[in-house]
């Protein structure tokens, strides 16, 4: 299978998992030694390593989901992701670097549907036997103004 097809399928399953509220399955899209970071375009361009959300193991992603389910208090809402076609930037030794544009709509319980975030995923995948897992995902948000209700993964 072509790597772009494997990555496109992985992207579709990833956003479906989040949009359908199946957050317990979300860490399964990453390798054990993964990185996940949410940052702004300005910070990414300047090479600043800190993120609004930062995790460097799959266990940290499981902890984040557990906190969302059991500890955090936030207004119930859901997301609807709209993705562009992944652009393959580099391929070497079973690893693939790609970039994908995204738009996330937020749907609140009794309120309107709002544009919540736009940006791009800067990814590094491990692809084996047609299966693509994220080794690294940097969520680069276009705006430097991030809503305080950034609870769910992007």
From TrEMBL:
It comes from the Bacteria. Pfam families: SnoaL_4. InterPro entries: NTF2-like_dom_sf, Rng_hydr_dOase-bsu, SnoaL-like. The keyword Aminoacyl-tRNA synthetase does not apply. GO terms for molecular function: dioxygenase activity. Keywords: Dioxygenase, Oxidoreductase. Residues 5-132 form the SnoaL-like domain. Belongs to the bacterial ring-hydroxylating dioxygenase beta subunit family. This is Aromatic-ring-hydroxylating dioxygenase subunit beta. It comes from Amycolatopsis acidiphila. The lineage of its organism: Bacteria, Bacillati, Actinomycetota, Actinomycetes, Pseudonocardiales.
């Amino acid at each position: 299978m072509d790597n772009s097809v494997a990555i496109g399928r992985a992207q579709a399953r990833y956003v479906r998992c989040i949009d359908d509220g199946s957050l317990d399955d979300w860490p399964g899209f990453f390798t054990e030694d993964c990185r996940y970071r949410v940052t702004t375009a300005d910070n990414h361009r300047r090479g600043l390593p800190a993120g609004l959300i930062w995790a460097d193991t799959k266990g940290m992603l499981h902890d984040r989901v557990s906190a969302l389910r059991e500890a955090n208090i936030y207004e119930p809402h859901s997301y609807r992701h709209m993705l562009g076609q992944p652009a393959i930037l580099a391929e070497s030794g079973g690893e693939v670097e790609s970039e994908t544009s995204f738009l996330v709509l937020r749907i609140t319980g009794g309120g309107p549907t709002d544009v919540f975030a736009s940006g791009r995923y800067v990814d590094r995948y491990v692809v084996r036997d047609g299966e693509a897992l994220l080794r690294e995902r940097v969520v680069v948000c276009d705006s430097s103004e991030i809503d305080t209700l950034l609870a769910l993964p992007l």
